[in-house]
Amino acid sequence: MEIKKFKDNLALKNDGKLSVFFLGTGSAFSKKYFQTNLLIVKGKDHVLIDCGSLCPVSIEDFGLHITDIRNFYVTHSHADHIGGLEEVALKNYFISHKRPSMIITDEYKKILWEQSLQGGCAYGETKDEHSLTFDDYFLQIKPKKIAGGKFPLWEANIGSINLKFFRTVHLAGKNTRGKVFHSTGVVIDDKVLFSGDTKFNPEQLDFLCSKFNFECIFHDCQIRKGGVHASYDELKTLPADIKKKTYICHYDDLLAQEKPKSEGFAGFVKRGYYYIFN
């Protein structure tokens, strides 16, 4: 893996190497590091993983506009991961007159629309005397379930980029419909793991590491135990061979004072850097 600092305008095409670029690396309430949203580029293909409320602002720091992004995947429905989608929908519909693609299951499509996007997107205009729907704003790409068992996987492709998804335990409580909160992590081209938002789950991490030969792991982290993310102290208990390829992301402003390399980690993920894989 090569780590390269951003210099010019962020491009949506490259020489064919897998590139992961973090538009932000902070937690939901970070005031310094924006939100953990990442752009994946490979050849002529790209996909944005998560689009938080600050994402449309952050992306302009790197010479792009949010309407330049044509493919999306969102891991779950917290505002630091989906808060920018209303702007994506409305700007594309009324200004660009294009529908970006979103990788999303039918189950989560219903949740995302009815519990988050509908209030701001459905009622501004009618189409054929009906309120607008998710499908007026986005082209759905349905991932396919490829494995069962305790940690099932789903898969979808954006051109040459292969993505596999797994459910995470972020909020364990059940909602009023009796369903566990929908949250996911992502495997990128079978070589990069992005944990998404998750509580400490060493059993799942061990399963994924045994199934895929990861070159790099981007794992969310919080400074204290007992919350909805893996804590710094919990992650320090991971085996040395996993820690040495693990970069910490989704950190708050206080956690950023720690020195993860001294604890055996690869370090913090840095905003404005390319992580490039052959």
Secondary structure blueprint with pairings:
Layout: E1 2-5, E2 18-24, E3 37-42, E4 45-49, H1 55-60, E5 71-73, H2 79-82, H3 85-96, E6 101-103, H4 106-121, E7 126-127, E8 130-131, H5 134-137, E9 139-141, E10 144-147, E11 153-158, E12 161-167, E13 184-188, E14 192-194, H6 202-211, E15 216-220, H7 232-235, H8 240-243, E16 246-249, E17 267-268, E18 273-277
Parallel strand pairs: 4-5, 5-6, 6-9, 14-15, 15-16, 16-17
Antiparallel strand pairs: 1-18, 2-3, 2-18, 3-4, 7-8, 10-11, 11-12, 12-13, 13-14
List key phrases describing it:
278 residues; alpha/beta; 8-stranded mixed sheet; 8 helices
What does this structure look like?
The radius of gyration is 18 Å and the shape is globular. Strand 14 (192-194), helix 6 and strand 15 form a beta-alpha-beta unit. Strands 1-18-2-3-4-5-6-9 form an eight-stranded mixed beta sheet. An eight-stranded mixed beta sheet has the order 10-11-12-13-14-15-16-17, with no helix packed on it. Helix content is 22%, strand content 27%. The longest helix is centred in the middle third of the chain and has 16 residues, at 106-121. By secondary structure, it is an alpha/beta fold. The termini are close together.
